[in-house]
Design a protein that fits this description.
Largest sheet: 4 strands, parallel
Strand content: 15-25%
Number of domains: 1
Distance between the termini: 22 Å
Shape: globular
Number of helices: 3
Strand order of the largest sheet: 3-2-1-4
Order of helices and strands: EHEHEHE
Pfam families: Glycos_transf_2 (PF00535)
Number of strands: 4
Protein name: Glycosyltransferase 2-like domain-containing protein
CATH class: Alpha Beta
Helix content: 25-40%
Structural class: alpha/beta
């Protein structure tokens, strides 16, 4: 039985961000080799965060922060269109030794 790339599970990275332009490069660079898609929900950045995320190939959605993390996270989840999701904090970084 052969395995083709379409039968493999896809992994999406989802992040809720606001004014994280300084943190995104380290974070997104570390995770890019492992995910099929990056989805960013921006909650009102004013420092170019969404534009930088687009440079990394992310899908960017805008959502006004409402002091309800559960609602914001739900909105983020709705934006995904792959099978599996990795939600990540802005300071998280993937260990490069993880890849086999």
């Amino acid at each position: 039985m052969s395995i083709n790339s379409e039968s493999l599970l896809k992994l999406s990275l989802g992040m809720i961000v606001k004014n994280e332009r300084e943190n995104l490069p380290r974070c997104l660079s570390s995770v890019q080799p492992y995910v099929d898609e990056i989805v960013i929900v921006d909650t009102g950045s004013q420092n170019g965060t969404p534009e930088l995320a687009l440079e990394y190939g992310a899908k960017v959605f805008y959502f006004e922060w409402c002091d309800n993390l559960a609602l914001t996270a739900f909105n983020l989840t709705l934006a995904f269109n792959k099978n599996h999701v990795k939600a990540q904090n802005k300071i998280d970084k993937i260990n490069p030794n993880l890849k086999g």
